[in-house]
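User: Some background: our group keeps a shared notebook of sequences we're curious about, and every so often someone picks one and asks for a predicted structure to add to the entry. Today it's my turn. The entry only has the sequence so far, pasted here. Could you supply the structure so I can complete it?
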Amino acid sequence: MKSRALLAFLAVALLTTGCSMNNNNEWQTVVCSVQKINDGAPVISAAVNAGDPANPDDDYVPLDLIKVLFWARPYSAASTINSEGAYSSFIITGYSAVWTPGPNAPAELTTYNVPRSNLSARVPINDETEVAFMLCPQEIKQEAWYPAPGSATVYTANLALTFYGHVEGSEHEVEVPAGTTVTFLGAISDN
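Assistant: Of course. Here's the predicted structure to add to the notebook entry:
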């Protein structure tokens, strides 16, 4: 009788929590994590790069690329995974980006959320891989609410990033969360 009650309890628990593995990266044989965003430097989106402030002829509209450094490790320190063998890497297949405007930042920034986009990278076990992708498309710099090149307007927004991928040889997709704060301003300079 006790075994039937235990089986009934387990069945209810599986139905309420689901019987498939969740998106938790820590349950995979190879665990991937974000080590650094933008080399640890502040992330900035600017309307123009003024280059040398004394020379107005060298101004240009910068591309806002963001670099992300990934690291892959075994699930457990006791695990031994051959770096040349099967299931020895983490494959990144995509990402999403969600803006949360800070104080004085325009709510319209959320129209530039990226629900899901392709991204391709292989992160070998016990190694790093750096990936760069577009932070802000050029269209954002043409919006009326984006700080103008000569203005003193400055605001920040939080950017929640979710990377999607799987252990090499597996199709079970997991999520790797990360995030950063981005400062928007009219102009920067090389100096």
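Suggested note for the entry: Residues 3-21 have pLDDT under 50 and may be disordered. Helices lie at 2-17.
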